[in-house]
Amino acid sequence: MMRMMKRKNRKLKNRRRKAGNTGFVSVASVKALSVRLFKIMPVLVTGIAVVYGLMFLKDLDVPTMLPLEHIEVAGELKFLDDEKVTMQVKNNISGGYFSADLHGIREVLLQNPWVKSVSLRRQWPESITVTIEEQEPVAYWNDDSYINASGEVFTPAVIDRGLNLPVLNGPEGHHDNVWKFMNVLYQEMALLDVEVVRLDLDDRRAWQLVISTNDDDAYEDDASRDAAQVNNKIDVRLGRFETEKRLRRFIRILPALAVTHHAAGDAIETIDMRYPNGFAVRMKDNNADDIAGGQRSLTRLSNTHKFAGEEA
What we know:
A hairpin with a 5-residue loop joins β8 and β9. The strands form two sheets. Strands 6-5-4-7-8-9-10-11-12-13 form a ten-stranded mixed β-sheet. The chain is an alpha/beta fold. Helices cover 38% and strands 23% of the residues. The chain starts with a helix and ends in a 19-residue tail after the last strand.
C-alpha cells in the first residue's frame, strides 16, 4: 500500500514538472511583460518611422528636390586650381544629396596626376566637402615627370621647369634606385657647403652628379648670382663600381681641393673619381687635366702627373 502511494506521488510530481516546461506563464509574469513592452513601444515606433522616412526621402531624392548646391574644396593647393576642381565635381554629380555617387566622383578626381589622395563628405542639407592631398614634387625625373617625397613618379601634362628642384635622370623603372642614392648624397654631404643639383644614372649603370658650390649671400644681384651658379657647378663622376666608397673619398678631398683652386683663381669643371687610389681634375679655363694620386699633396695639383690605373 505504501509503495502504491509513493508511486502516485512520484507520477504527480512528474506531471507538474512537465506542465511547468510547456510554457504556462503566471499572471504576474504577463503583467510585467506588458509593462516593459509599453515602455519601449514609443522607441520602436520612432525608429521605424525614421527608417521609413529616410527610405521615402531617398526614393524622392532627385536634383530638383534635394540638389547639391555648394561644393567646398579643402586642403593646401599650390598646383591645383580649386575652381577647376569645383567645376569638375559639379560636372560629375548625377543625383541629389542622398543619391550622388561620391565614389565615382573620387575616382574622377584621382585621375589628375597632381591629386595624391581625396575624400568626399556630405554636409546636410546641400553641400559636399572635397578634401584633397596634393602631390608635393621634390625632384624632376627625366624630362617629363616629378618625384614626390615617397620616391613615387607622377607625370602632369605640364612640367614647370622654374621650380627649385634637383634633376634626377635614369633608365625607365630605375627611379627608386636613383631616389635612394640621392638620399645617400644628402646624408653624406650634409656638412659640405654644396648642393646636389643633378644626379644621373646612365644605361651602363654608371653614376654622375653635378654639385653647385655657389653661396647666394655673396652676390649683390641676380645677374652675378646666375653667372656664379654656372661657373661654380662641378661634374663629379663616380662610375659603376664602389660608388659609395668613391663618394666618401670625394667628400674627404673636396674642401681642400676647392680652397686650393679658388685661391689660384681657377674653376673646377670635372672631378673624376673613377680611379682605385686617386682622382682627376679638369679645369674650366684650360684643356689640361690635373691628376693626383691618393698620396700626393693638393699643392701639386697644378702639375700634370702620370697616373697608373684605368677608369672604372
